[in-house]
Amino acid sequence: MLGNNIKELRKAKRMTQKELADTLHVSQQTVGSWETKRAIPGADTLAQLADYFGVTTDYLLGRSEKKSSSEEQETKDLKKFLEDNLDNGMTFGDGKVTQEDREKLEIALTQIFYRYHDEFKKRKEEKGRFKF
Fold first, then answer.
1. CB within 8 A of 78, min separation 6: which ones?
2. CA-CA distances (angstroms) from residue 25 to 17, 62, 99?
3. pLDDT tens digit string along 60-70?
4. Is the pTM of this model over 0.85?
5. Maximum Cα–Cα distance for the chain, whole Å?
6. What is the pLDDT of residues 22-50, one digit of tens each?
7. Cβ atoms within 10 Å, residue 40
8. Cα–Cα distance between 3 and 20 in angstroms, integer?
9. CA–CA separation, 97 vs 42, rounded Å?
10. Contacts within 8 Å (CB) and 24+ apart, 18-23
């Protein structure tokens, strides 16, 4: 299961084994051995793989069908928050928010969320999270 999941995720990103190996600072042969089930990545490398592919370690190990990482879950949570709050009659001042204002609020809040989300991911990568 683990090897198949690594291979599936790598191919979904249109990466070669060498590109994934370079990203994780391991050899291409190491990636190949994971994918053919001849070797298993250590706990730290497993966490790096999950972070890189945006999935849970449980998904990689075949313990869960849920691919979502916590960041993807936050995106889903934001969407639910917006739907719950904006669809249930949000009000400002004396009156309800119009449909046009509601749409503008949703767009603005979503853009802010993704801007901060992208900045967080960049900072995380810049800190060399995938370096040994």
1. 109, 110, 113
2. 12, 24, 51
3. 888 877 666 55
4. no
5. 67
6. 999 999 999 999 999 999 998 889 989 98
7. 13
8. 14
9. 52
10. 23/52, 23/130
